[in-house]
Amino acid sequence: MERAAVYDNELNLKATELRLGLPGADESEKQSSRNNKRSSAEMDDSRDKDEQESAPAPKAQVVGWPPVRSYRKNILHQKNESDLSGIFVKVSMDGAPYLRKIDLKVYINYQDLLKALENMFKCSIGVYSEREGYDGSEFAPTYEDKDGDWMLVGDVPWDMFITSCKRLRIMKGSEAKGLGCL
Amino acid sequence: MAYSFPEEVLEYVFAFLSSHKDRNAVSLVCKSWYEIERWCRRRIFIGNCYAVSPQIVIRRFPEVRAVKIKGKPHFADFNLVPEGWGAYVYPWISAMVRSYPWLEEIKLKRMVVTDESLELLSKSFKNFKVLVLSSCEGFTTDGLASIAANCRNLRELDLRECEVEDLSGHWLSHFPDNFTSLVSLNMSCLGSEVSFSALERLVSRCPNLRTLRLNRAVPVEKLPNLLRRAPQLVEFGTGAYSAENQTDIFSNLVEAFSGCKHLKSLSGFWDVDPAYLPAMYYACTGITSLNLSNATVQSPDLVELIIQCPNLKCLWVLDYIEDAGLKALPSYCKDLQELRVFPSDPYGAEPNVSLTEQGLVTVSAGCPKLQSVLYFCRQMSNAALITIARNRPNLIRFRLCIIDPQAPDYLTLEPLDTGFGAIVEHCKELLRLSMSGLLTDRVFEYIGTHAKKLEMLSIAFAGDSDLGLHNVLSGCESLRKLEIMDCPFGDKALLANAAKLETMRSLWMSSCSVRRCPSSNVEVMDERGHPDSRPETCPVEKLYIYRTVAGPRVDKPNFVWTMDEDAVLRLS
C-alpha cells in the first residue's frame, strides 16, 4: 500500500487523473505532494531501490526545474544531423482564448511533451495507448503533419513525430474519438 | 558662483568615470553637476526595461552613444515566463532612432527583438558598430541580413544563446564586398549552414577580426582554411568537431592551430570526435577560457585537453569530467577563477556519471583563485559545503543545483541549512547565491545575518514559512534581485517589507502562497484568469514586482494584471 503511494509520488499519476473542478484548483494537493517528497527522502535505502526498479521513467518534472536552458536539455540525446535551431510549433487548445508556441526540440519524448502541455494549459491529457488512443481523457493531443493530415500524438516514433509535426491541437476528448480508432 | 571648475574641466574629469554607479553618484552632488553629467553621459545601462521609459531616458540623457537594456526576469531562461509577456525592444529603437542618430552600440539581454527592429536599426544609425543580443528571441535570419547589408561600420555582431528562426544561412552573404570592419562575429546559436566561401572571404578581408564563433553547421574540414586566414584570432568557437574518416584533416588542423599564436578562448565543440582534440594542443598554452559545455566526450580525453591549458581561468564543462577529472585541476590549472559544470542528463532518474560533491571540494581546496562556481550534481552534504566555504572565503558567486528538489544531506539526511550557512558566513564578499536541496527557515536566518553584500539570491523548494522570506528581505542589505519558485512564502513577509522592495530591482515569486500584493508596480501573471475571479484563498501563479518610474505598462498581454492601490484596499 505504502509502496504504491510512493510510486504515485514519483510519477505524479494524480496529475493525469480525470477529475472535476476548476483548472488550477489542485494547489492543496501540490502542497501535500511536496510534503510527501520530504518524507520519501527519509526512507531507507532498500525501499528506494525497490522504487527504482518499478519506476524506470524519469521523475515527474516541475516546470523550470532543474534550471537548465532549453538548448542544454537534450545534450545526451543530440545527434549529428540535428542543429541548435528550434522546431517551433503553434499549440491550440479547444476553448482556450489564445495559442501558445513551443519548441519541440526541448522535449526528449512524448511523456516530456505531454507533461509540459498539461502544465501549460492546465488540463489533463491522460495516458496514450495504441488501441484506445487517449480514450477516457478529457483532452487528446493531435497534430497536423507534413501532408496536412490530423494525427493522434503518440502513434509514430518520437523522432519521426518532431520532424513531421507542423502544429498541435489539444482537442476535447469527445471529438478525438474518431482519431483513436481505425 | 565663480569658484567651480569650468564645465569643460568637469566633463573631462567625468569622462574617467566608467562605472554607472559612479556616474549616478556624481549626478547627485548638485544641480550643476547633474546638468553637466547628463549632457556628457555616453553609455546607459537599464537593468529592467520596464523601470523607465525611452522618453524619460532620452529627455535626461540627450547624447548617448551606447545602450544596454535587460528585459525578461532571469527565470524566463527556464520557461517560467509565458510567451508574449513583453520586453519588446521596438519602442526603444524607434524612440532612439529619432533622438540618438549617432548611436553606436546596442546590447540587449532577454528581450524580444523583431526583424522590423533590426531593419530599422540598420537603416537609421549611420555609425552603428556593436550589436550584442544575449538570450533574445523574436527575429529571423532575415533580420540578420538587414544588419549585414546596411551597417557599413559594424564591428561586433554577437548572438549569444538567442532563439533565432533560421530561414537560411544566406544572411551572411549580405555583408558587402567592401565591408572590412568586422572585429567580432558570434553566430554559434544559429542552425543553418552559411556559404563557406562567403565566410572565408569575409574572414580574409577583415584584418581586425579577433573573435569568431562558428555554428554547429560548419564542419571541422573547413576550420583550417578559416584559421589560416585569421591567425590573429583571440577567441575562436568551432562548429561540429568531427568528420568522416579523412586523414588529412588532423594534420591540417595541427598546422592551422599552431599558426594561431594569440588564442585565449575556445568554444563550440559539438559532436566531438576525441581523435581530433590533440590537434589543438599547440594553441592551448595561452588559453584562459575554455567552453566545453557542448562536448559530449568522456573523461580521459576531456581531461587531457584541459590539462594542456596551464593559464586557464574559466572552464565550462559537462559533468562528463567527473570527480576524477576535477581532481586534476589544482595540479594543472592552478589559476582557475570560474568553474561551471553542467548536467549531461538532467532528467535521468539515475546518475549517468560519477560526479559528486567531492569534485567541487577538491577544486575548492586546490585552486586558490576560484571565485565563481556553477555546479550541477546529485548529492551534497553539509560537511562538503562547510569545507568549501572554509577553503574559499573569496567566493563571489556560488550557484549550486542539486538535481533532485529538496534532496537532504545524503550522509546525515538533515537539511543543508548549516552548509549554506557556512557559505554565507565565510564568503563575506558573496554577490550571488543560488541554493537547492532540503532547506528550512533556518538557512534564511543565516543568510539574513551574514549575507550583507549579497545582490542576487535564487531559491527553490525551500523554507517553511514567511519567516524565511522575512529574514532575507530584512537582513540582506545589498539585495537587488530575488527570485523564488515553489516556496511556502506568502503575504506577511511582503507586507512587512514593502519598503525594502523599492530598494531592489525586482522580486519574482512563482508557485508560492502569495494572495495579496503589497504595493503598486506589481505584476501578477495568471493564465487561469484575473486574480479576483478565484476564491480568496487561492494563491496567484506568478508574481513579479519591480520598481519603476514609468508607471503601469501599456503593452501587457491578457494574462498579466497590475495591482493598483485600490485593488489592494478592496481585497483586504
From TrEMBL, chain A:
Subcellular location: Nucleus
Pfam families: AUX_IAA
Presence of keyword Repressor: yes
Keyword check for Nucleus: yes
PANTHER family (UniProt xref): AUXIN-RESPONSIVE PROTEIN IAA17, AUXIN-RESPONSIVE PROTEIN IAA3
Ranges annotated as biased composition (Basic and acidic residues): 39-52
A cellular component annotation (GO) from this entry: nucleus
Protein known as: Auxin-responsive protein
Record note on quaternary structure: Homodimers and heterodimers.
Biological role stated in the UniProt entry: Aux/IAA proteins are short-lived transcriptional factors that function as repressors of early auxin response genes at low auxin concentrations.
GO biological process: one example: auxin-activated signaling pathway
Family the UniProt entry places it in: Belongs to the Aux/IAA family.
Keywords linked to the UniProt accession: Auxin signaling pathway, Nucleus, Repressor, Transcription, Transcription regulation
Domain PB1: 86-173
Annotated segments matching region Disordered: 18-63
TrEMBL record, chain B:
SUPFAM superfamilies reported in the protein's UniProt record: RNI-like
GO biological process, one term: pollen maturation
Annotated metabolic or biological route of this protein: Protein modification; protein ubiquitination
Chief localization: nucleus
Keywords of this entry: Auxin signaling pathway, Developmental protein, Nucleus, Ubl conjugation pathway
InterPro entries: COI1_F-box (IPR041567), F-box_dom (IPR001810), Leu-rich_rpt (IPR001611), Leu-rich_rpt_Cys-con_subtyp (IPR006553), LRR_dom_sf (IPR032675), Transp_inhibit (IPR041101)
Positions of the F-box domain: 5-46
GO cellular component entries: nucleus; SCF ubiquitin ligase complex
UniProt cross-references to CDD domains, sorted A to Z: F-box_AtTIR1-like
SMART domains per the UniProt record, alphabetical: FBOX (SM00256), LRR_CC (SM00367)
Signal peptide (from-to): none
Location in the cell: Nucleus
GO MF term (any one): auxin binding
Keyword Nucleus (UniProt): yes
Pfam families found in the cross-reference section: F-box_5, LRR_6, Transp_inhibit
Protein name per Swiss-Prot or TrEMBL: TRANSPORT INHIBITOR RESPONSE 1-like
Species for this entry: Olea europaea subsp. europaea
